[in-house]
Write a structure and sequence with these properties.
The chain is of the alpha/beta class. It has helices spanning about 20-35, 65-70, 80-85, 100-105, 110-115, 125, 130-145, 160-170, 180-190, 200-210, 220, 225-235, 265-270, 275-285, 350-365, and strands spanning about 10-15, 40-45, 50, 90-95, 115-120, 145-150, 175-180, 290-300, 305-315, 325-330, 340-345. The protein has a 6-stranded mixed beta sheet with strand order 3-2-1-4-5-6. Strands 9-8-7-10-11 form a 5-stranded antiparallel beta sheet. Strand 10 (about 325-330) and strand 11 form a beta hairpin. Helix 1 (about 20-35) crosses helix 15 (about 350-365). The longest helix is centred in the C-terminal third of the chain and has 19 residues, at about 350-365. The chain is globular, with a radius of gyration of 22 Å. The two termini are about 25 Å apart.
Amino acid sequence: MAAASVRQVNIAIIGAGGVGKCFLSQLQQLAARRPSPKLVLTYICTSKKALYSTDHTAIALDDNVSSALASSQQAPLALGKLVDFLGASGAKTVLVDNTSSQDVADAYPLFLGRGISIVTPNKKAFSGAYKLWQAIFSAAEQSGAKVYHESSVGAGLPVLSTLRDLVDTGDEVTKIEGVFSGTMSFLFNSFAPTSGSGGQWSAEVKKAKALGYTEPDPRDDLNGLDVARKLTILARLAGLPVESPTAFPVQSLIPKELESVASGDEFLEKLPAFDAQMEETKAAAEREGKVVRFVGSIDVATKQVKVGLEKFDLSHPIAALKGSDNIISFYTKRYGSNPLIIQGAGAGGDVTAMGVTSDLLKVLAQIA
């Protein structure tokens, strides 16, 4: 009798930038550490180039993957064709989407419908139109494919898995509140520290950009939309059918007059003229013995979701946050008046990729 064939799971990767590179090295270690199921890389692409064989031959999982991809002459397959390519391999397949692309997110129901599981940090799929969210999970349910996106909120922090466990075990989540942006955390911890005076607002924004904490155009952080996306994802998992990240109040910290300036650099140049507004906000909190922080909150009972500035006592865990850490508090029936708190690095390539890798392990445990 022939020996049973080695169990194999094919891996396809879209995106090989910051998070993608970190994930690749974690995948290499994982494949070496866990021989079964055998993890076979059959497709990898950036927006311009791809690496794959029409017969699904394995791509060597070694230190040369990135350079081989960079020098490849192959173009990425269109998403519809990629669904067919991966679906035709005959092996169980997991798609790892390390992009923040709306187009890729829109195609998730197609992949899942063909039995291809997905792990991703891509927020767009789970915070965009509620219809897409429903289509993703119903496609997964029908085909049995799995979809995990832990890193779409809080990078490697176990935020979504914790919320899922609370909900699935029948606890009643009453409120979720926290600092969901590493950028905003860093900015307010240095602008309005719990002790000492802190810097000028515009100077802190410049510093955050120089340190790589903000998007290339800091307005993409200061408009609050990134936090709104994360809250949308959490609210939906908590059972609120939030239509989109623009369906609830989101406070933007971009002065009206600077919303339409041409570039991020011009924005930073003109921002000092508006420092007085933020100084007054900080002073108003100080007069009450408090500090100001940029938070998101979900009140499940009243179905209210909001993002913006709030004042906190100096002893509050949200006030005492350090550096660019995230903090998420879950108030539930079981935990009573003391919330379950998750805190730690909420951004960075390695910790984000860790969330993706841990999702991959969850999928493997179920499909392999």
